[in-house]
């Protein structure tokens, strides 16, 4: 059984963009409460993070941007209207909130702390569910993300001497900030499985986007059509990702585990279930064992159904990471349901089990069936576009379904 660390502190709830903002910290609090009530965290000592320091933040973000975030955090003395718009601050997506710099730095520090637990040999796996802020760019906030903790953790790992890191993003939105940070670095393979950019913000991450000069093939984008369900998602994922991981041979797997792929998520259009998320996490664990020596750093991400989806999906993530997998039919404790009902909008149905009664991994075989010369299914077209763009750069045959 692999060892694992959970990085958590109540202060991580301070990343709060406001009561009406989709990225509510309630989803994190409810996740930790549910994991505790189900016994997932029994006997686990939580790792307490410290904020990322100026040196680390300046390695991944422009100093002028860092200064703007610090100024914005002092909202009593620096009105948002005076901030240059180029920093992406003070917008509907990225509103100013108290202690914005401090809470953002703590999330980045938490992801680095999780990476440190692995690199220093205390555990094989570690998770920061508050992390996964993958849209933040070097010079601006974007998509609810102020500092990019994913980039911070990977940059720190590279500084420790790692030479091959695979980053795998299963959020419904393209992992654009992470790809941008490492698009010219052949040491980092960024893979993003997301809704097609023609149908969803940020509008990037097409299959032809394969990395910059000197790092061709180090960016992999699998763009799925709206309506893709558990079976289609698994079909596409298994036709692309395992072969590339085997070819790249990473020393550590970093995953961004956004759950806004769910069929009930209000901000996107894929159709996965909580059961599908559980299957994804179990697949990620297997891939880390097979291709990364068991070393797996898991981060949170998007997910905007805070009462029905996020707590269940990420409790499954914590359970899988700890090798304490929960059966889908597990009943949710009455105490948690009552607490969630008090916080939720009126008439919100609170789930009673850890399942949506879905099959999760009902894709059949891990690849795809023999072709008849016509790839008609939209998911097949998506996965083939990615294979044809990237596989030859790794010496793989995109038409060989054994890959």
Automatic annotation (TrEMBL):
Domain Histone deacetylase intervals: 21-320
Protein name: Acetoin utilization protein AcuC
Organism: Actinoalloteichus fjordicus
One GO molecular-function entry: histone deacetylase activity
Pfam families (alphabetical): Hist_deacetyl (PF00850)
BP GO terms, sorted: acetoin catabolic process; epigenetic regulation of gene expression
Domain of life: Bacteria
Pathway: Ketone degradation; acetoin degradation
InterPro entries: AcuC, HDACs, His_deacetylse_dom, His_deacetylse_dom_sf, Ureohydrolase_dom_sf
Lineage start: Bacteria, Bacillati, Actinomycetota, Actinomycetes, Pseudonocardiales
Keyword Cytoplasm: no
Keywords linked to the UniProt accession: Acetoin catabolism
Family that this chain belongs to: Belongs to the histone deacetylase family.
